[in-house]
Amino acid sequence: MVFSSLTFIFVFLPLFLLAYYTISSHARNSVLFIGSLIFYTAGVLKQPFYLLLFLLMIAVNYSIGRFLSSEEDPATRKTLLIGGLFFDFMWLFLFKYFDFFCSCIADLLGLVLSDHAIPEVHLKLVLPLGISFYTFQMVSYLVDVYRGEVPAEESFLDFGAYVSMFPQLIAGPIVTYSSIRESLHAKRPYSLEAQSGGLKDFIYGLGLKVILANQFGSLWSNVQSIGYDSISTPLAWLGIFAYSFQIYFDFYGYSLMAIGLGKLLGFQLPVNFRHPYVAISMTDFWRRWHITLGQWFRNYVYIPLGGNRTSRGKWIRNIFIVWILTGIWHGAGWNFILWGLLLFVILLIEKLGFGRILEKHPGIRHLYMFFLIPLSWMVFGITNIQDIGVYLTRLFPFLGHSSQIIYHGDFLKFLKDFRFIIPAGFLFSTMLPTHILHRIKNTVAESVICLFIFWLAIYCLHIGLNDPFLYFRF
User: Fold this and answer.
1) For residue 177, which of 193, 191, 199, 158 has the smallest C-alpha distance?
2) Active-site position among 330, 366, 401, 408
């Protein structure tokens, strides 16, 4: 079950909200926990073990948090923390990285022992829904309790409600316990203003996902189906712009829906995007994109390693570790490692002086990001390294020997088919729509726009124009 489905919108959500607001406020966390487990179960019906794993991880992290809170011996507390982190990351490694790790080991041994056949071990496990997100939440909880920044949660139901809260369970934003602890223990009374704001955020997010992201996804899929070695240079550029818009509106739309649902339940979930496509540098971009992931790596990796309050060599090492881990977090593949390495190099160059040059030349910095953003997403979105090389020769024909770069028929066809959605992608990547909505907030005009977006999105869902959220696979 996903937010952008008729079942969720017209069945699960109304029934859940009915139960949530008709029951006593003291029992709402129990309703939230149970409802979230039902929501998660709907997504793992073919792998029921994943529900048991999820419950096991909740129980273990709850218990370790309680032990950390009551234990005073520093050595024992450190052992408990390391044990908890190992337990959490063990499952993430097993499901997400084990096969890739085994393939790398087999390839390495194959180079050393070239005369012997090296068998590869593959478990071929399906990635549990949302494991990358809820693992990071549990890890942040244990570390914060260990540091003494938050007290351990005493109620198992309240802790379960925090971890499993369905608005952010399967694709973020990554919510720390400290950020919602007060709301979790509050009565969270019904508020017409909060309900109205939550519904609007949900509808705007639904529109971004269904009306925009899915259409750009269709364009990118068409480019892929043609074959990278058969497309012209203009279509290659159109393709990576389409993918850039798809991943943005897909994930931003989901995050906005999550924030809206959080408001409906009385929680203020953290903002995850701040118009990243108007960024003036890649450093600025990653302050605006997937903000909660960046904050997680800053607070639990970068700063503990010393941050920038160390020697230049160690500072560069710290940045390198963060971006390699950021790449690996997104997926087990060489393209994600290459993507993380690429971002490390770009960000380091900006921090060492190029960023100051960009600040002095507004025209150059916007042109720089106009091309750099889709190029970076190209490395992210194409999983095969050889295909990345082929695509680069299509984007930059002087890098290879292309016989079709002059042929523009394919480009014009897709430009015509998607003539309305392409300019919409550029428009809604700016801050203009947000400014307009802010000016007409709580007016009849805003209500009309919301109704139009909602029913247009419902129509698109009804006729089958829907795709799974991209970040479910990460």
Assistant:
1) 158
2) 330
SS3 420: coil
Distance CA 19, CA 401 (A): 64
Q: Which of 146, 94, 93 is closest to 329 using CA atoms?
A: 93
Identify the helix (H) or strand (E) that includes residue 263. Answer: helix 233-265
Question: Taking the CB of residue 473, how many other CB atoms lie within 10 A of it?
Answer: 12
Token digits of residue 258: 């999550």
CA–CA dist 150, 244 (Å, integer): 38
Q: Quick check: helix, strand or coil at residue 305?
A: coil
φ and ψ at residue 309, rounded to 5 degrees: -95, 55
Contact (CB, 8 A) for 176 and 49: no
Alpha carbon distance 430, 424 (integer Å): 10
Integer-rounded Cα Rg, in Å, for the chain is: 24
pTM over 0.70: yes
C-alpha–C-alpha distance, residues 171 and 334, integer Å: 22
Residue range 46-77, pLDDT digits in tens: 888 999 999 999 999 999 999 999 988 999 99
Of 126, 113, 377, give the one whose Cα is nearest residue 247: 377
Tokens 């050595």 label which residue? 75
- 356-411 residue pLDDT tens: 888 888 888 989 999 999 999 999 999 999 999 999 989 988 776 655 555 567 78
Catalytic status, residue 330: yes
